[in-house]
Design brief:
37% helix, seven-stranded mixed sheet, Aspartate Aminotransferase, domain 2, Aspartate Aminotransferase, domain 1, four-stranded antiparallel sheet, alpha/beta, 396 residues, 14 helices, binds pyridoxal-5'-phosphate
Length: 396
C-alpha cells in the first residue's frame, strides 16, 4: 500500500482550496504539488540523475586537497558539488552550499545573513541546538530574537509589524512537538513584511515540501537525517537564491565548515532513494500511529497524518503526506521512562530519519509546547508489523 494524499487527508475528497488530487491521479503520494522540474524530468528521476558525473554509474569520490589546482576551501570539490547540484535540483534552488552537519550550515548561514541590531522571528519551538544558538550566540552578538507561536498567524503578523524583521525561521513539521505549521502562509507573511525566509525542511524533505516553490528565500537540511537516510554520514545543506548562497559560501570558505567528499558521496547515494524511503516511512508511521492511538497506555498520539491530529487540517492544504516522525504522550510517567529501554528491535537513540526506528524520551517544556510524558519516534524502514510488535511487547 502506498500512502496516498487521500490517506493523509483521511477522507475521500480533497479539502476546498487544497491542491487538486488530480495532479497526481492514482500515483503514490509524491512531492509537493508545486514541484516543477528544472530538467523536464520527475522528482525520482532527478533524485537519481541530477548532478551526476557523465559516464559514471556513481559520482567519484575526489579526496584531493587541490582539485585541478584549486584548493578545497572555499568549496570546489566535485564530489561535494555533485551533492549540492542534486539538492539544488530537488529543492528548485538557484544554488546550494553544504557543510559537515545541519548545525554547521545553519550557524554559518545565520552568521552570514544577520548583523548586530537585526531582528529575527522564529517559531517558539525549533530543534534544540538551533534554539540554543539563537538564544545564546545570536543574542550575545546583538541580534534580537523573537519567539512566536506561528500556529497563530495574527501573532506572527504582530511580531513582523512590531519591528523591521530581517529573517523568519521555522520548521514546517516541528521538532519535537509534531505541530504542522501553515508554511505557505508563513512564507507569504514574511514576504509581505520584506523579511527573508529560511525554512528548516529536515523533517519533510523536498519530496514532501519544497519551500522555495512557495516563495521562501532559503531552505536548509540536516542531511544527516532523511537525505542520507542510512545513518552512515553527516551533512548539512542550504539551497535558494544565488546571491544569498554566494554570500554563505564566502562564510563557509572563511569559517572552514566544509562537507567532506566521503560524506558527500554517501549523502548523494542516499538521495537517490529518497522518494521510495519517504513513502515507506510515511506508510509505516501511519500504521504505527493508528496502533498507538488505540493502546490503553497512550494519552495522545501526535502525527500530522492522523485525521484527528490538530495539524491535520492545515497539513492537508499543502502536504500530500507527513513523513516518518510521530510523538506519543503516555498516560503514566512509568511508561514514559521505561518504554525505550524495553524495546528489542527499535533503538532508544537520539537522531532520526534512519532506516532503524529510533525512539527518544523528552522532558516537558511548556514554553515550547513540549508536553509531559512525551516520546519522539522516528519510524524506520523495518516491517511495520515488526515495529508494532516491538512496541506492543515493550508496553506489556
Ligand atoms: C530539524 C533539525 N534541524 C537541524 C538539525 C541539526 O542537524 P545535525 O545533527 O546534522 O547537525 C537537526 C538534528 O536533529 C534537526 O532535527
Amino acid at each position: 500500500m502506498t500512502l496516498s494524499r487521500r490517506a493523509f487527508l483521511g477522507r475521500g475528497a480533497a479539502l476546498a482550496g487544497a491542491p487538486a488530487l488530480a495532479i497526481h491521479g492514482p500515483a503514490p503520494a509524491r512531492q509537493d504539488p508545486k514541484f516543477a522540474s528544472t530538467t523536464g524530468r520527475g522528482f525520482a528521476s532527478d533524485a537519481i540523475h541530477a548532478g551526476e558525473e557523465d559516464g559514471m554509474s556513481v559520482t567519484s569520490i575526489h579526496m584531493a586537497k587541490n582539485y585541478k589546482g584549486s584548493y578545497q576551501r572555499p568549496p570546489s570539490n566535485p564530489t561535494v558539488g555533485a551533492f549540492e547540484a542534486k539538492i539544488r535540483s530537488l529543492e528548485g534552488g538557484e544554488a546550494a552550499v553544504s557543510a559537515p552537519c545541519g548545525m554547521s550550515i545553519i550557524t554559518q548561514a545565520l552568521l552570514t545573513l544577520l548583523s548586530p541590531g537585526d531582528h529575527l522571528v522564529a517559531h517558539r519551538c525549533l530543534y534544540d541546538n538551533i534554539m540554543g544558538f539563537l538564544q545564546g550566540f545570536l543574542r550575545r552578538w546583538g541580534v534580537e530574537v523573537a519567539f512566536v507561536d506561528m500556529n497563530d498567524l495574527d501573532a506572527l503578523r504582530a511580531a513582523l509589524a512590531a519591528k523591521n524583521t530581517k529573517l523568519v525561521l521555522f520548521e514546517p513539521y516541528v521538532n519535537p512537538t509534531m505541530e504542522v505549521l501553515d508554511a505557505p502562509k508563513i512564507i507569504a507573511l514574511a514576504r509581505e513584511a520584506e523579511a527573508l525566509t529560511l525554512v528548516d525542511n529536515t523533517w519533510l524533505t523536498p519530496w514532501l515540501f519544497q519551500p522555495l516553490r512557495h516563495g521562501a528565500d532559503l531552505v536548509m537540511h540536516s542531511a544527516t537525517k532523511y537525505i542520507g537516510g542510512h545513518g552512515s554520514a553527516m551533512g548539512g545543506v542550504v539551497a535558494g537564491k544565488k546571491d544569498l548562497i554566494q554570500k554563505i559560501k564566502g562564510t563557509v570558505g572563511v569559517m572552514g565548515g566544509i562537507l567532506r567528499p566521503m560524506d558527500a558521496f554517501l549523502l548523494t547515494q542516499g538521495l537517490k532513494t529518497l522518494p521510495l524511503r519517504m513513502q515507506r516511512h510515511g506508510e509505516s508511521a501511519l500504521k504505527v500511529a493508528k496502533f498507538l492511538e488505540t493502546h490503553p497506555k497512550v494519552e495522545r498520539v501526535r502525527y500530522g497524518g492522523l485525521p484527528g491530529d490538530p495539524g491535520h487540517k492545515v497539513g492537508s492544504t499543502y502536504l500530500s503526506a507527513c513523513g516518518g516522525m510521530l510523538g506519543v504522550e503516555w498516560k503514566e510517567a512509568a511508561t514514559h521512562s521505561r518504554f525505550p529501554g524495553r524495546l528489542k528491535m527499535c533503538k532508544p537513540w537520539v537522531s532520526l530519519g534512519d532506516v532503524v526506528t529510533l525512539v527518544s524520551t523528552r522532558a516537558e517544556e511548556p514554553n515550547r509546547a513540549i508536553p509531559a510524558r512525551f516520546t519522539r519516534v522516528s519510524i524506520g524502514l523495518e516491517d511495520a508489523g515488526d515495529i508494532i510488535a516491538d512496541f506492543r511487547q515493550a508496553l506489556e
